[in-house]
Amino acid sequence: MKKLLRPVLLHCVLPLLAGWLIYFILRPDVLAVRSFVQRNPLVDLHTAGWPLRLLAYSGPDFCWAWSLTAALFLWHSGRNNKIPGWPWIVFTLVAGSEILQLLIRSGFYFDFADLAATILAFVLSGLLTTASHEKN
């Protein structure tokens, strides 16, 4: 169990904190921040360049997808009986959660940039989490 502490902190907790910080700094109007504090954004995203807008709008999706992918891969690595096709199951869950937003009209907005960020997070997190955990 102690062997999992570092990978869980690095690949699961830290990305969730990073995603929340992106919301806190760039998008305080979202519920994840508004529940704790009422304030104005530090940056006007309407006039900001595309890299900052991409970070503000797709960065949190990247972070939560990284965290979820890592958590599921770490959980699976500790199982004695491996589940066949596990990476595809995780991919379907992570990407499907973004695609599902097409069907939900209230409060959720589908964006191809978010889907791309989610898929990139799945690939990178899956590779790095697996590699770093197997090395230990």
Q: Calculate the mean pLDDT score and round it.
A: 85
Helix and strand succession? Answer: HHHHH
Q: Give the number of helices.
A: 5
**What's the gyration radius in Å?**
16 Å
Query: Percent helix among the residues?
Result: 55-70%
What does this molecule look like?
The chain is mostly helical and 136 residues long. The chain has 5 helices and no strands.
List the helices and strands and how they pair.
Blueprint: H1 2-26, H2 31-34, H3 50-77, H4 86-99, H5 112-135
Name the features.
136 residues, mainly alpha, 5 helices, 70% helix, globular
Report a brief summary of the structure.
This protein is mainly α. Helices cover 70% and strands 0% of the residues. Helix 4 (86-99) packs antiparallel against helix 5.
